[in-house]
């Protein structure tokens, strides 16, 4: 609101300041409305007091004082320009508490990287604009905004969450002693909902299937691929039970 008033009393180059800060006032008003709707009673009361004190009383005193006390237009612009510069510095210094929280907790949860990037870009653009129109009340505070924006991005890179590499699942290696199965005088039939029932070995049809495939796992000193041979073994005991492990086969 102060920059909006500053743009209105400027003799020239005030259109851009008025346009940008009018949109900013509308967006900030929407933020405040949503905050007050969903705020707790204590937050609602404290926020309302702050708005009345700063946006009504303080702003009203600044406007009335500069309009009534100073008759020189250039002097009025200078006074309001200094006031705007001081409040702009306060706005840029506000994230210092968040930066301290990031350093203390070593977490960037409350300091989004996108906010720091756009804060820095905004400061750079306004600084260049202030230099071009030779308005140092606009340009000077954005130097501090640029420095704080860069500091926030550095903090984010230092404490950003590291990517956790999920370990690859290792296939379960099962050793099947086929000799023990063949040498047993009897085996057991197991099915869904059926308890173990002894069966003679002669009644059981045993079928064994072995599938082999190779895959490269590394390279030796000569640059040749080292391949690992994998075997998939299926043992079918009379159609009652199937064992399908995937195990490395060493030749």
Structural notes for this entry:
With 251 residues, this protein is α+β, with helices and mostly antiparallel strands. 56% of the residues lie in helices and 18% in strands. The chain has 8 helices and 6 strands. It has helices at 2-9, 15-38, 41-68, 73-93, 96-105, 113-132, 136-159, 178-183; strands at residues 186-191, 194-200, 206-219, 225-237, 242-243, 246-249. The strands form 2 sheets. Strands 3, 4, 5 and 6 form a 4-stranded antiparallel β-sheet that branches. A hairpin with a 5-residue loop joins strand 3 and strand 4 (225-237). Helix 1 runs antiparallel to helix 2 (15-38), helix 1 (2-9) runs antiparallel to helix 4 and helix 5 (96-105) packs parallel to helix 7. The protein starts with a helix and ends with a strand. The model is unreliable at 184-198 and 240-251 (pLDDT under 50).
DSSP helix count?
8
Q: Biggest sheet: strands, sense, closure? A: 4 strands, antiparallel
Gyration radius from CA atoms, angstroms:
37 Å
Structural class per helix/strand content?
Answer: alpha+beta
Helix content: 55-70%
Rounded to the nearest angstrom, the distance between the terminal CA atoms is: 81 Å
Mean pLDDT: 74
Query: Globular, elongated, flat, extended or rod-shaped: what is the shape?
Result: elongated
Strand fraction band? 15-25%
Low-confidence stretches: 184-198, 240-251
**Strand segment count:** 6
Can you write the helix and strand succession as a string? HHHHHHHHEEEEEE
């Amino acid at each position: 609101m102060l920059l909006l008033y500053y743009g209105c009393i400027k003799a020239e180059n005030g259109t851009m300041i008025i346009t940008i800060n009018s949109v900013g006032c509308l967006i900030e008003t929407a933020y405040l409305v949503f905050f007050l709707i969903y705020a707790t009673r204590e937050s609602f009361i404290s926020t309302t007091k702050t708005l009345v004190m700063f946006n009504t009383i303080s702003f009203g005193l600044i406007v009335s004082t500069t309009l009534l006390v100073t008759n020189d237009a250039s002097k009025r612009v200078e006074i309001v320009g200094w006031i705007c510069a001081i409040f702009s510095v306060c706005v840029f210094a506000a994230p210092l508490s968040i930066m301290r929280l990031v350093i203390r907790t070593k977490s960037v949860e409350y300091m989004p990287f996108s906010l720091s990037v756009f804060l820095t870009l905004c400061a750079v653009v306004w600084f260049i604009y202030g230099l071009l129109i030779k308005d140092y009340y606009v340009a000077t505070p954005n130097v501090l905004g640029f420095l704080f924006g860069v500091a926030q991005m550095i903090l984010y890179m230092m404490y950003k969450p590291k990517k956790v590499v999920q370990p690859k699942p290792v296939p379960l290696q099962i050793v099947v002693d086929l000799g023990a199965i063949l040498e047993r005088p009897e085996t057991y039939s197991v099915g869904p909902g059926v308890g173990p029932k002894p069966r003679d070995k002669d009644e059981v049809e045993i079928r064994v299937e072995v599938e082999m495939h190779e895959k490269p796992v590394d390279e030796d000193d000569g640059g040749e691929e080292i391949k690992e041979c994998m075997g998939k073994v299926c043992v079918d005991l009379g159609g009652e039970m199937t064992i399908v492990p995937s195990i490395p086969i060493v030749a």
